[in-house]
Amino acid sequence: MAKFNLFSEESNKSPLARFWRKFKSNHPAVVGLWLFSAFAVLAAAAPLIAPYGVNQQHSEALLIPPSWHEMGDVRFILGTDDLGRDVLSRLMNGATYTFGLSIVAALLTTVIGVVVGTFAGISHGIRSSFLNHLLDITLSIPSLLLAIIIIAILGPGLMNTVWAIILALLPQFIHSVRNLIVTELNKDYITAFKLDGASNWHILSRGIFPNIYEHIVVIFTMALSTAILDIAALGFLKLGAQPPTTEWGAILAENLGLIYLAPWTVGLPGVLLFLAVLSTNLVGDGLRQVLKARKAD
């Protein structure tokens, strides 16, 4: 009886509660979620909590190492650069550009990708064939290379970088959503919907989307990880954010000549990029494992 009651209690939980119970059992994914949340908060609140202005110069404190170094200064926890600017303040502000704009790009990609992917999934004939061939062509080009091509057309700049990332991520997102839609359309419950005379919108909203939204969340995390790397790479190549913008890739490019003299000005933005991508991938892997567990159940 106790076993039955336990099963009954579990079955009475909401889908979100069951989802969270399975997700939190994956400890690396939970660590990734905490890191991801910290970066999200930092991206939103950096201008309010940064100790100094991003371009505020301290002429008496040029190339001060981090505070834990014997030559460090407690006023500058992560040191200063060659212009006397506080590294911590610039890195915190850079989260708004690298991480925050990556989220914006991934969200816009998700909205557009779901709409176009759904249209591609329910289309037939010439329209479906044209979209498939177009996707095959664009998918053969790596996202970063495609973004560079788009930047070459639009011109360098931070906002052009965001649009380039969106356009570069769209083909893979559309392809994934289309495959999800096609897979669901071949299932028996969709046939039952059609026999009941349900409209396409009713089938999508009541049947297909409730079964694929979790997959879309996983695809979103993958797109976000790629967006973070691509925005930083374009900034490093001086095709994206331009100095003195504090985007992490642009900071790396700006301080590359100081790598031997002041390695913290290069190493710290690289560590933040690593942690941002790692946290996103950990959350994505956790979501994928939960989805696999639900399929097994």
TrEMBL record:
How is the protein disposed in the membrane?
A: Multi-pass membrane protein
Give start and end of each ABC transmembrane type-1 domain.
Answer: 95-284
**Which positions, given as ranges, span the membrane?**
97-122, 134-155, 216-237, 257-278
Subcellular location per UniProt equals: Cell inner membrane; Cell membrane
Q: Which UniProt keywords apply?
A: Cell inner membrane, Cell membrane, Membrane, Transmembrane, Transmembrane helix, Transport
Instruction: Pull one GO CC term from this UniProt entry.
Output: plasma membrane
Q: Which CDD domains match?
A: TM_PBP2
Biological-process GO terms, alphabetical: transmembrane transport
- Tell me, in one coarse class, where this protein mainly resides: membrane
Q: Which Pfam families match?
A: BPD_transp_1, OppC_N
So which domain of life are we looking at?
Bacteria
Question: What family name appears in the similarity comment?
Answer: Belongs to the binding-protein-dependent transport system permease family. OppBC subfamily.
Q: What is this protein called?
A: Peptide ABC transporter permease
Q: Which organism is it from?
A: Pseudoalteromonas porphyrae
Organism phylogeny:
Bacteria, Pseudomonadati, Pseudomonadota, Gammaproteobacteria, Alteromonadales
